[in-house]
Design brief:
Structural class: mainly alpha
Strand order of the largest sheet: 1-2
Largest sheet: 2 strands, antiparallel
Order of helices and strands: HHHHHHEE
Number of strands: 2
Shape: elongated
Helix content: 40-55%
Number of helices: 6
Length: 149
């Protein structure tokens, strides 16, 4: 039987080295699989959610509790402010990707509030704070300067 010049007969068990091979994802998995276990994956996922929640926590608190307890809340505006917190205003503007990101970010912020303690700043407040004066006093005395302190 005549075969082309670039053809060679290979045993079937050697075909895996010729056909296919590992993709980039398979190669990354082969390298990280011995290192990562379930606790690493859980820690990574929790850290990602925490970082996203940290980015959204300020706006979420401001648009919900901050608005309600800010002194200017009206019944008509409560829905609007809640819509800003959950991304409904983005959907109305046609920004669907931003709306979905706002929903996920707000959910991550709420998740953070549920899993960690919030810093209590009540102990940092002083009833009679000391007034800071200047550390040094500079006076002119004739042609020279005097520094007191």
């Amino acid at each position: 039987m005549m075969m082309p010049a670039n053809y060679s007969v290979i045993a079937e068990n050697e075909m895996t080295y010729v056909n296919g091979g590992a993709s980039f994802i398979d190669a990354i998995g082969a390298v990280t699989a011995p290192i990562w276990d379930l606790t690493n994956v859980k820690a990574f996922s929790t850290n990602v959610v925490t970082m996203i929640g940290n980015a959204f926590i300020g706006d979420t608190i401001h648009n919900t509790l901050g608005y309600v307890f800010g002194g200017n809340a009206t019944k008509a505006d409560l829905g609007t402010m809640f819509g800003k917190a959950v991304g409904a205003d983005k959907f109305k503007a046609g920004q669907y990707g931003d709306g979905i990101a706002q929903i996920l970010g707000s959910a991550a912020a709420i998740y953070n509030l549920g899993r960690t303690e919030v810093k209590n700043t009540a102990g940092d407040v002083k009833l009679f704070p000391a007034k800071e004066g200047p550390k040094y006093t500079i006076k002119r005395n004739g042609n020279s300067l005097e520094i007191w302190g």
